């Protein structure tokens, strides 16, 4: 089979730590370009990953190359929309990291363009290819839980705001804080496991409390610290989020914190069914609680690299033309949810669909 030729736009952490290691294990692709506006980052990545054939600064070189089949957009959130639209209009399939973009309206425009151009546009909600999530989705589909009536999730950490003052904490560039950064993963996998749940109404409160004075903010760890700009930057996004969601499948409640004054990482999701329940440790395994036998069951299974599974599925999708679980058409409800939660917080009231 002829190898698919791809280009990688954005050579930051998600490219370096997730997708490039996956590409290096795939024998059905060529990585013709690695692109970054800081060329040295692309060069450094090429040094580490010999699968990269060349480096460029201008992404338009890649999208205008007739040899290139697909573009992987692994940039900060604010760049997703422009590069995706340019790539689709140039006739390329696109894999775009999560979130789709900074708001629901632009997300819908991206979906419309993908379908207009008859090109695959997948979104990097990688947990849909995490083995535990796949198993829970199948179990729910087969009726193992009975009726899942409520789901609770927690994505909370101690003083770990990423890149304070930089793109992560500047709403114009990121679209939001902990909800759009971490919450999208948790809430999207919940909607997926529930079987494509549709929204009825939501209510939410968002807080930006822990680093209102960035110069006095203390932390033990800062993800993406090299992007921080504490002296001159902006912090206008949520560092704590709490909300309640009603869907046509189940209700969902959640709490999320980039930074809280409780030194605990609490990253889990509880699925409450009338026959069986489960607690999923985020990115890990789950325990089952059987209501009939009162047993706690710890299934034994391996967890393959979800990024490799996700990237392989995308390449298969652009080969067959079939839309898979990460196609943008299947992710729009999650983008709609994020917008609604932020809108609820701003109006301090319920948003009804």
Keywords:
6-stranded parallel beta sheet; single chain; alpha/beta; 353 residues
Concise synopsis of the structure shown:
This protein is an alpha/beta fold and 353 residues long. Helix content is 32%, strand content 24%.
What does the model show?
- This protein has helices at residues 13-23, 39-48, 59-63, 80-89, 104-117, 131-141, 171-174, 178-193, 306-320, 332-347; strands at 4-9, 29-35, 55-56, 70-73, 93-97, 121-124, 148-156, 199-207, 240-247, 251-257, 266-273, 276-281, 286-290, 296-297, 351-352.
- Helix 5 packs antiparallel against helix 10 and helix 8 (178-193) crosses helix 10.
- With 353 residues, the protein is α/β, with parallel strands linked by helices.
- The protein has ten helices and 15 strands.
- Helix 2 links the parallel strand 2 and strand 3 (55-56).
- It is globular and about 55 Å long.
- It has a nine-stranded mixed sheet, with helices on one face. The protein has a six-stranded parallel sheet with strand order 3-2-1-4-5-6, sandwiched between helices.
Q: Strand-and-helix sequence, N→C?
A: EHEHEHEHEHEHEHHEEEEEEEHHE
Q: What gyration radius follows from the Cα positions, in whole Å?
A: 20 Å
The secondary-structure class comes to: alpha/beta
The overall strand count is: 15
**Contiguous uncertain segments of 5+ residues:** none
Distance between the termini: 47 Å
Tally of helical runs: 10
* Beta strand %: 15-25%
- Give the CA-based shape: globular
- Mean pLDDT comes to 97
* Major sheet description: 9 strands, mixed
Helical percentage: 25-40%
Strand order of the largest sheet: 14-13-12-11-7-10-9-8-15
